[in-house]
Design goal:
Alkaline Phosphatase, subunit A; binds zinc ion; 16% strand; alpha/beta; 4-stranded antiparallel β-sheet; 11 helices; Gyrase A, domain 2; binds adenosine monophosphate; 2 domains; globular
Length: 425
């Protein structure tokens, strides 16, 4: 029985060790003892992609609800645009997309005219504009491991030859990282985190990331209010339960910071703006479309495009990139195309009138829209229990919190180090 109950065994060993420490051998010298290990807390940053903040209150995520009840919880404002890669990079760098270089999930850069950034791009060129917390930590001698996180497979800070064989020079990666693969299931991901924490202390990480994508996928396919999305929530919640139980079983205290990158809003066939009805497709090229659209004018067509776009439009608004309202903190980076249109929340911008029904959900809209607010839970020995997260804090503010938990000096960033300072003991 004992061998099956390490949670019981660990405190028992510590008690035994304490007892024998008082004992003396017949020689008068202290008897040698097998000291049970007292583990220092590990920081685990968990992302549940697309976990809208109010999902937590649907009664389908008991493990997350328990962590929230014993720790700190509150809606977290994502950065704009409310997409996966820009926001995951904002959380680990403290810089908003306009400065962290990951301005979209799909990008062009005039300095790399023959390339396009996609979610599969691991050339450090795209990522080097802001330093992720794991690079700062590794450089400070704090060992890190990532069980997926956008950018965690990149040799951060390195240069990569543009010619074959694309040698990589320099750079910092997490000591342990894995190439993203959606097919690796939630339990496997949790077990890989638990496995690195079972290692001997000298090769055990102090900071770990863990990423789940199924809630986002269900939200896209079925919509935020669908039973299938509730089912995905319950499944991910069970994986969080596996993590908590596994940590307890090995006697590993943890400061858990559980976040989402953005929320989710329902889309509909009768909430679509067809761009070709607004402007002449002969005047522009679309770079991205959906909750927002980014465009370039075809050479010589700037005036015609501006005349069509830059006036009041039903259900969307367009700007020159330099005139995007300041509250979005978006529009200075060279990777942002010259024209940017944002749909009213729930309204999608598409190249033409869709021929198939528009169903399910999406994200990318205004970072202040209630539907785009993201999950935040902090639970662990470092945190003030039963505290409330400050109202309307930004996801970049998680970065200085992580730096503090890891004992490393944060880089200057867009974050407000005071925003979450009061939730730490
Ligand atoms: P989005 O299009 O913004 O909804 O992006 C969500 C998708 O990003 C997920 O369904 C994943 O398949 C994908 N994704 C998440 N992390 C990574 C990664 N590290 N590398 C490649 N794709 C990823
Ligand atoms: Zn996402
Ligand atoms: Zn998504």
């Amino acid at each position: 029985m004992l061998s099956r109950s390490p949670a019981i065994l660990a405190p028992a060993l510590i008690a035994l060790a304490a007892l024998s420490a008082c004992a003396t051998a017949p020689s008068g010298h202290p008897a040698p003892i097998a000291q049970a290990e007292q583990r220092a807390p590990v920081t685990i940053l968990v992302s549940i992609d697309g976990f809208r903040s109010d999902y937590l209150h649907r009664g389908v995520t008991p493990h997350l609800a328990a962590l929230a009840a014993g720790g700190i919880e509150g809606p977290m404002r994502p950065s704009f645009p409310t997409k996966t890669f820009p926001n995951h990079w904002a959380i680990v760098t403290g810089d908003r997309p306009d400065r962290n270089g990951i301005v979209a999930n799909s990008m062009e850069d005039a300095s790399r005219p023959d390339e396009k950034f996609t979610m599969a791009s691991d050339d450090p060129y795209w990522w080097n504009e802001a330093e992720p917390i794991w690079a700062t930590a590794e450089q400070a001698g704090v060992r890190t491991a990532t069980m997926f996180w956008p950018g965690s497979n990149v040799a951060w800070g390195a240069t990569r030859d543009t010619d074959w064989p694309h040698m990589i020079h320099g750079g910092t990666r997490p000591s342990d990282w894995a190439q993203f693969n959606q097919a690796i299931g939630g339990t496997q991901r949790v077990n890989m985190v638990l496995d690195v924490l079972r290692r001997p202390a000298d090769i055990r990480p102090h900071f770990v990331t863990l990423y789940f994508d199924t809630v986002d996928t269900a939200g896209h396919i079925y919509g935020p209010d669908a039973p299938e999305t509730a089912q995905a929530l319950t499944e991910v919640d069970a994986h969080v339960g596996e993590l908590v139980a596994g940590l307890k079983a090995m006697g590993q205290p943890a400061n858990l910071v559980i976040v989402a990158d953005h929320g989710m809003a329902a889309r509909a066939t009768d909430r679509v703006v067809a761009l070709d009805k607004v402007a002449d497709p002969a005047d522009y090229r679309i770079v991205e479309y959906g909750p927002y659209a980014s465009l370039t004018a075809l050479p010589g067509h700037e005036k015609a495009l501006e005349a069509a776009l830059l006036k009041p439009q039903p259900h969307m608004q367009c700007w020159r990139k330099s005139e995007i309202p300041a509250r979005f903190h978006y529009g200075t980076h060279r990777r942002i195309p010259p024209y940017f249109c944002l749909g009213e929340t729930g309204w999608e911008i598409q190249p033409t009138t869709p021929t198939k029904p528009v169903t399910g959900g999406n994200h990318g809209w205004d970072d202040r829209a209630p539907e785009m607010q993201a999950l935040f839970i902090a639970n662990g020995p470092a945190f003030v229990p039963h505290a409330k997260a400050p109202a309307d804090f930004a996801n970049v503010d998680v970065y200085p919190l992580l730096a503090r938990l890891l004992g490393v000096t944060p880089r200057p960033s867009d974050a407000d180090p005071a925003a979450l300072a009061d939730i730490v003991r």
